[in-house]
């Protein structure tokens, strides 16, 4: 496996912060040009792209878009072509994550959670497919271990990620043999910044993780890099979760 991505272009949705930024840095370090999508993180995106261009001039760019907007998929792909002339890798990382109890689910919750975690990745992949096929490229979807084992209190999110897992396998068939499609399913990597998990719940999650600790965004980035370069792997979802999914 050749891990060098020199000359290739990657589009990372939600690529300005947290796990997305780690993926962006990892692919850039491997030689790729990177297009960083963001919605509200203007400052983070600008700082990250300035950092990367300081390391390798004209190797990083940004694109701002609301992924639920109908024009977003075409805008993202067009931005990649305008910035770098090609598209080799699509990483569907952007995601909404919040709980909604059964009985309180509203259409707006469905639109945001399913929209960001399933609808947007599908339509972006569809828009990018022809350009990716030209380069024998790849799509990598950031799924979740709770696509297979739902997270209590998060039914809509779990449904959306289950759909993304199914989409990953379906597109692997639809886009073969020119485009490979895989997924990475994180476990406890980066806790939500809005305090959704209190300290006791965090301790419980770690206690049910065989490796006994949380992972890091770099762990996810490493898995994405592997799948970006693995020429005979498609239709697979790699759990990066410290073994938690075998315990649940």
Oligomer status: single chain
Q: Over the alpha carbons, how many angstroms does the gyration radius reach?
A: 17 Å
Uncertain runs are none
Report the helical percentage: 40-55%
Q: How many β-strands, per DSSP?
A: 7
Main sheet: which strands, in order across?
Answer: 3-2-1-4-5-6-7
Order of helices and strands: EHEHEHEHEHEHHEH
Features of this protein?
alpha/beta; seven-stranded parallel β-sheet; 46% helix; 248 residues; 7 strands
Topology (elements, then pairings):
Blueprint (H helix, E strand, L loop, with lengths): L8 E4 L5 H12 L3 E6 L3 H14 L4 E5 L7 H13 L4 E4 L14 H28 L3 E5 L12 H21 L4 E7 L12 H9 L9 H13 L7 E4 L3 H4 L1
Parallel strand pairs: 1-2, 1-4, 2-3, 4-5, 5-6, 6-7
Helix pairs in contact: 1-7, 3-4, 4-5
Description of the structure:
- Strands 3-2-1-4-5-6-7 form a seven-stranded parallel sheet, with helices on both faces.
- It is built from eight helices and seven strands, in the order E-H-E-H-E-H-E-H-E-H-E-H-H-E-H.
- The protein is 46% helix and 14% strand.
- It has helices at residues 18-29, 42-55, 72-84, 107-134, 155-175, 199-207, 217-229, 244-247, and strands spanning 9-12, 33-38, 60-64, 89-92, 138-142, 180-186, 237-240.
- With 248 residues, the protein is of the alpha/beta class.
- Strand 4, helix 4 and strand 5 (138-142) form a beta-alpha-beta unit.
